[in-house]
């Protein structure tokens, strides 16, 4: 059976033929580590974890290399470290550790390599030098910029013309730029900001160059699959292509580009900047990681997901029912329908539908393949709604409000919200309902 994957570059679902079946190479853009990741950030981690599992199944565990980077140099990181009064290193170490624990609890396997941007500055300096030498980049006012006009096929991934890009993007206007879409490869750092010596003075890399440098180092000039969320398509992935191809005689960066859709809250993309998010960590306090994972996999990875607590409760019920049927079983093995669905562009809704019809051993095999262990759920004794605890929390919130401690009363309200409980304040006092 062939594996077919939707390729954003061709906009078609194509048969996947690895460049070298003894080493199938995948790169996925990882987190910028300055704060807790939200459940939207968990989507690419879970989707590409499943792809990693499927590729290992198809080509052998030893024949797949999965690289997911950590962005530990970024202006948001600098700002947050200053705000909290901790060193940048402390902040990035702590956040990277939390991220690893969080997505581990969501059943994601560690990638083969997890490179950090700050440990690959030398590789970035090399590739920037190659781009200057090849006429794709120029130095201006202490910055190095990529000259978009030097690459006539710029825009081929997102299929936009330069005019559309300029109209649609938030273009940073800077006097030293030759073209509006030219983007930063290297920028100067003042004394207080992290910086490294380079041929262009003390500075730090732009965001896009780190992925080109790390992908090149661990996977070579051209590799099989590049993944990330759909928001990275433009400009991040477009710029990665321009940089890597510009430095490598136009050899393609990746054969297949895969993008997951957004996880949304009431129709809006979940995001830190919009403030409409739940962190993985706060959800894990009330929901088993397996429920969060299953809830994600019930939707096809390219479709948007509307995140609801109702969805989490349904996911929990289904898993609980299945775990009761499947234990204990020797030799669980998924059936042909299950694999046919996954090989059709990771069609997890169809794979899960096939489990509803499956024999117990095929069900157990399918669940195991998708990353469900059945252990965590069994030891979880949490009930879905604990009315006494809610009543206690409402009383505590009332006391906090009476004492004008609004920070505490808001905290209690938010804590309940994470558990799917919405408080309603009315003339009769505070009532609660289950969030839809
Ligand atoms: P960031 O740390 O914002 O660069 O995001 C890390 C990863 O999470 C990237 O692959 C993003 O595309 C992805 N991502 C961020 N927000 C969402 C969302 N609401 N739904 C799905 N993926 C997301
Ligand atoms: Zn990237």
What does this structure look like?
The model is unreliable at 378-383 (pLDDT under 50). It is built from 16 helices and 15 strands. 42% of the residues are buried. It has 436 residues and is α/β, with parallel strands linked by helices. It folds into three domains: 4-260, HUPs (Rossmann fold); 263-369, Four Helix Bundle (Hemerythrin (Met), subunit A) (Up-down Bundle), CATH 1.20.120; 387-434. The longest helix has 18 residues, at 42-59. 43% of the residues lie in helices and 16% in strands. Bound molecules: adenosine monophosphate and zinc ion (ZN).
Give the gist of this structure.
With 436 residues, this protein is α/β, with parallel strands linked by helices. The protein has 16 helices and 15 strands. The protein has a four-stranded parallel β-sheet with strand order 4-3-9-10, with helices on both faces. A four-stranded antiparallel β-sheet has the order 5-6-7-8.
Quote the average pLDDT.
92
Largest sheet: 4 strands, parallel
- Report strand %: 15-25%
Number of strands: 15
The spatial strand order of the largest sheet comes to 4-3-9-10
Number of contiguous helices = 16
Helix/strand structural class: alpha/beta
User: Which kinds of small molecule does this entry bind, naming each only once?
Assistant: adenosine monophosphate, zinc ion
Q: Which term fits the overall shape?
A: globular
Low-pLDDT parts are 378-383
Fraction of residues in helix? 40-55%
Based on the structure given, which CATH architecture of the largest domain is correct? Answer: 3-Layer(aba) Sandwich
What's the CATH superfamily of the largest domain, by name? HUPs
- From the N-terminal CA to the C-terminal CA, the straight-line distance is 40 Å
Please, how many domains? 3
CATH topology of the largest domain: Rossmann fold
CATH class descriptor name of the largest domain: Alpha Beta
Q: Radius of gyration in whole Å, from Cα? A: 24 Å
What is the assembly state of the chains in this entry? single chain
